[in-house]
Design a protein that fits this description.
With 623 residues, this protein is an alpha/beta fold. Strands 3-2-4-5-7-6 form a 6-stranded parallel beta sheet, with helices on both faces. It has a 6-stranded parallel beta sheet with strand order 11-10-9-12-13-14, sandwiched between helices. A 6-stranded parallel beta sheet has the order 16-15-17-18-20-19, with helices on both faces. Helix 18 (437-445) links the parallel strand 15 (430-433) and strand 16. Helix 2 runs parallel beside helix 8. The longest helix has 17 residues, at 363-379. Mean pLDDT is 93; it is low at 1-30 and 32-37.
Length: 623
Amino acid sequence: MTRPTPETLAHSARRARAAAASATDAEPASRAAAVPVVRTSAPAQVSGAGSLVRSLEALGVDVVFGIPGGAILPAYDPLYDSTVRHILVRHEQGAGHAATGYAQATGRVGVCMATSGPGATNLVTPIADAYMDSVPMVAITGQVASPAIGTDAFQEADIQGITLPITKHNFLVQDAAEIPQVLAEAFHLASTGRPGPVLVDIPKDVLQASTTFTWPPTLDLPGYRPTLHPHGKQIREAARLLANARRPVLYVGGGVLKAGATDGLRQLAELTGVPVVTTLMALGAFPDSHPQHLGMPGMHGTVAAVYGLQKADLIVALGARFDDRVTGRVDSFAPDATVVHADIDPAEIGKNRHADVPIVGDARHVIDELIVAVTAERAAGHTTALDDWWNQLDDLRKRYPLGYDEPADGTLSPQYVIERLGEIVGHDAIYVAGVGQHQMWASQFISYEKPYTWLNSGGLGTMGYAVPAAMGAKVGKPDTVVWAIDGDGCFQMTNQELATCALEGIPVKIAVINNGNLGMVRQWQTLFYGERYSNTDLGTHKHRIPDFVKLAEALGCVGLRCETAEDVDKTIAAAMEINDAPVVIDFVVGKDAMVWPMVAAGTSNDEIMFARGVRPVFDEDDI
């Protein structure tokens, strides 16, 4: 294959300098910190578009993912001369997921940009995805000229109305003078409290209007006062419950990562000796190898984690939301547990499960103050032995470990591929998954020892997330190896962004787990629909359409294929040696592998299946 030449990849000196300026791996002091508005600027006469770009520069934005179009076009003229790097994606959905991946990897606000109408509506899926997973993102969209709003003008869509349920807040700018204040407020809202996406919609005439740009603006957000510090009485009650519980569990969600509270979490866990479970969105918040880690709870969680929660007498939920994929049938979830629920969003507390001790606050402050209160309880001699509880849980871990059977037909095992990928690539890489079986296997068979090394679409479950999110993560962390683990179905939704990666010099690595089918849907058809495989065969096995190696090469990437266990290690090693172009590996795996354990949708966690037809067996006196 012919790799892109330096000439075809050449950027202007401006873009090269901007890219170099963004190449930092330094973690922000707090991943939930407010955007610092510290730069000042003397008044200057500019267009609304110029004010927009200057605002982005003043906010410290280093990269924007987007596509120009008629309504947003005025903004692209001053962007041409800006220090802000613009990455031209191939689809607006790619821009949104790239902004999300950038934000998840760095803790900074991800920024995407699109034009009006279909450009803006193509951002709806990544905006909803960011909303469900609490990702700080600002989406900037062009809108038809103000006089045309409401007339069904060409490429008009009420994107503010469309996204109202899936944004933390959104703005329709009606005066060019408002742009600096609106942008500063948007970034502040996106990054503080419970993070989330904010939309800024700007009509074309507002972008073209003349205005005076000054910085910094004054933020005017009456009523927006996120509660960061928890109430001391509630903290003391939680500590008292921890000191007296016989079967406690720390139920850790993605909010702990958002708050940068992983060090405190480990200190709290080791201080109390309490078992820890980490949700799909919290993998890496607590080391997988830690002896107190029971694994991931939920539909495809470990038996120990699922039953640990189910039989607990105390659940301390930290930045988690009692999602249905964790609780199973909620009316049968953890029937004997007292619940301490700590979350920065008061709307989450008690939404799905009654909280006996509600705690509103940032996870970092909650955990830090819990450590102080628990230490005081222990100093007063208030502790409970957890030996019996640990004996029960350790027995479960021993009897029901995560594992898999080699395919009887001799095909390549997808679990083996993912397991070896994690072992060869190591703990410092960032792993990005699509949605489906490969996502669950990646959560199960790669060991996540460090925070912010696992990115996925948890709440919305968006197929097509992995490739553009990996692109955004690599832009944000250029010195970190980034692997996307994708399914053959997911990959075909957004693989066009590999052309962006090739041309922009973003050397991501993609492992396509190609089982020829929409794998998770096929698994459900096997288990619940009498093996009637309606419309799940993608043809990537039978007909090799598309041929992923040829497709990769056509998109400017290096394409590799692996079909046997003997070739897995050397194929991964070959991909790791290539750092000047994106790499795609077509791992051709068996179609019959399933994800286990499993709690069927709508059933109780008590009905967890360890494997097909195999229910865990418990003695009456065990738990």
